[in-house]
Sequence to fold (463 residues):
Amino acid sequence: MAHIQFLGAARTVTGSKHMLEVGGYRVMVDCGLFQGLKHLRLLNWEPFPIKPASINSVILTHAHIDHSGYLPRLVRDGFDGTVYATPATVELARIMLPDSARLQEEDADYVNKTGATKHHPALPLYTEKDANAACRLMESVNYHKRIQLTKKLSFEFVTAGHILGSGFVLFDVQCQDGATRRVVMTGDLGRYNEPIINDPSTVEDADYIVVESTYGDREHGDFDVKAKLAEIINDTVNRGGHVLIPSFAVGRTQLLLYLLRELEEENRIPIIPVYVDSPMAGSATKLYLRHKEDHDPEMKDLMSDRKNPLATQRFNIARTRDESKAVSASDTSSIVISASGMATGGRILHHLRKRLPDERNTVVFVGYQSEGTRGRRLLDGEPEIKVFGEYVPVRAKIERLENLSAHADSKEILRWLGGFRRAPKTLFLVHGEPKAQEALKQKIVEKFGWHVEIPDYLDKFEL
Fold:
């Protein structure tokens, strides 16, 4: 008997966790943190719906925290199996998970010190010790290498095109009737013809597909992203202000650096300091340069010219707290890229508190902002937001550059699904808000005539 259960990213875009059980063997694909709305974040603190020690293994599709960030808690609560991921994902996770733990510990220390908490004391969800324990369980698996988990269950990774090291998981399941059925889980589906990394792989055959639906109800705008980015930077510098970009440390930050370097070389923006205020993003950028197996042809050509495609002329990384404070205190116009991408935590909060009240400054959002996050509230035009227990007035200009998202839009999802040679028995839509999922379901049914399910949290389906 085989079944799949959805333990996260069900009618929401965070907390990705999908359990596949075959013949009593439990493998969980992704182990992400819930973010955004309070009722979702509270799920991180509740007992896990399945005993962690009963899970045999975990497979990470990529290293983003909404897909990997719960792993230290799972380990702390009893999971001790193998965590499989591509080599780049393993290296990124070994940076990101301890960093996530440190940020949680720092935030807990800060609110305890300032009294901005209802908990006495406030505690982190997990510690750096827990994160390091999780990292020790990781095993690297190259793309296209088949791993036999049991006699009835095996898997391999193929390129997902989302961030460095991201991969679709292709399971082969031997069923009671002797037939082998394929289950494909996308994690996050990347975009086509984007800089730095390869396009998503075409998959031709599957009995069951689990696909994300973040942008299922829209297409990315058809406009020149570089021109808009240049316009924002030039306007802000002319006002004497700073450009502040909340950004995921992995993926979005490297794409921004690539585009800023191009704009400088094309003399379309002034040469001003560009700060990446995130030790994690700095380390991740080095990994992007090193893992050439994920590079697209243009990136490979640039690297062969002994050029760093991910550095502007006045590029700096703020690694320490003192360096971060110096960046925030500077009066010279600058571009600051800092995590987290939805402004839910991390150093970006200190920059927002400093820069939001000044109308000369601009805050640019370059990715999806989940419901309930500070990023979504800023985009929705709220006149003040709460940061570290205090309300900060919003006078800075708020801009959005959604075309920089690393998630496929509805058109690109349909393009990828069009690569399958036959209809699956069921397609499951996950990692999307209800409106986006319903819209994408309708498009899939109209275009392909497939059976589509939109699971709720904890829903279970027999395969």
